[in-house]
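Re: folding output
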Amino acid sequence: MTVKPNRTVLYSDTDRKIIYDFWFNPNQTMKNIADKYGVSDYLVSKVTSQFIRTKDEERQKILKEAAALFKQNEGLP
């Protein structure tokens, strides 16, 4: 995840998968998500917090990109 001066956030493919999993599977903990993707709890918390603060139209765009990644690579969870 990279934050540019104009506060645009660029998410990696893993970040998008974490966001998608967080948003559409609310009954799991951040620890479960971190273990699933092999990242730290801190990264999951940071990525999801940043995502929650984005504007609605940007949020929808990111979720569509994440869904496309799942369909392309491994199927939706």
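--- second protein (sequence, then structure) ---
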Amino acid sequence: MSNLGVPAPSLFGGNVVWAIAYHFGFPVMVVIGLGAVLWTIAHDIHLRIT
């Protein structure tokens, strides 16, 4: 694991997220984050219906 020289907030799980963001770009991280949130909401609604 190479150090990118950017201190990673513990909230984001450390250097792994920074490494992914460094390679793929923050827009991709935002899309993945929104997708995860929408998936969680949809799953929760599905559980409430059934």
